[in-house]
Every structure is written in structure tokens, then in C-alpha cells.
Design brief:
Structural class: alpha+beta
CATH class: Mainly Beta
Strand content: 35-45%
CATH architecture: Sandwich
Distance between the termini: 77 Å
Strand order of the largest sheet: 1-2-6-5
Order of helices and strands: HHHEEEEEEEE
Mean pLDDT: 82
Shape: elongated
Length: 150
Amino acid sequence: MMTKKNAYPLFIILLICCFLGFSVWSAMRAIDAGPEVTDADYYSKGLKYSSTVLEKRAAAVLGWKVETQLIGRTLEFRLSDKEGKPVTTANGGIFLYLTGSTTSKRRPLQETEPGLYIFNLTAGMTGEMNARLEFERKGARINRQLLLNL
């Protein structure tokens, strides 16, 4: 007489082994990778939410506009108000997210003439890069996201 084998116990054991294997793999990835936050100020921005909203509103009321231009290896940023007058003595900086790095580095911008801020790109800065532009003056702040393709 032929007996019929039941495959359910084998299937259940295989399912439990897959679940345990995936759980171990997931835990190891979580331990090795660390946080994937690329902006070092990510958590502090949440804590300062109300103050940054006020800064952005102040810049919006002032009508600040930023025009970006790449000339050779120099990034030029023209900062003007709603009347088209240059905004002088602003504290400008650019945060570069370089390829292969998980952190950004803030680099200061130089004001060469009223309302014109520049940043010179180095020879090593090539390819596609994300950047965040930031200007602050007298409690008003404006931020812009940039995608550079060099």
C-alpha cells in the first residue's frame, strides 16, 4: 500500500527558516550601514522648525530672488530684493554633497560686488552634485536646492 506524504511540515519549516534568515540579514544591514541621513543638520532643523519658518517668511516678505550662473569653474549668485536692488553684506554659504560622501561641507561665498556672491569650483568637483545654497542677513534667510552637473 502506498502512503501519501504530507508536504506541509516541510513547507512550514522552510518558511520559518526563510523568515529567520531574512531577520538576521536585516539586523546585520541595520548594524553595519548606520543612518543614511546625508544632511548633518537634519535633526536640528526639526528642532528649530519655527525659527526657520520665520526666517523664510522674512525673506519672502523682502522678496529676495537668487539668480544662478556658471561661468567656467565659477558659480555666481546674484541676490536681489523685490525692487531689483542688490542685497549686500549677506552671509552666504553653499553646502556641497560630494559624490561618495554622506556628509555635506559648508563653503563660504565671497561677495565680489554688491549683491554678487561667487564660489570657485575645484578641479576635483566633477560629475553630478547636489548642493544647498543659503543666504542670511538680519534674521532673514533664503535657501535654494541646486543640482550641479559638471
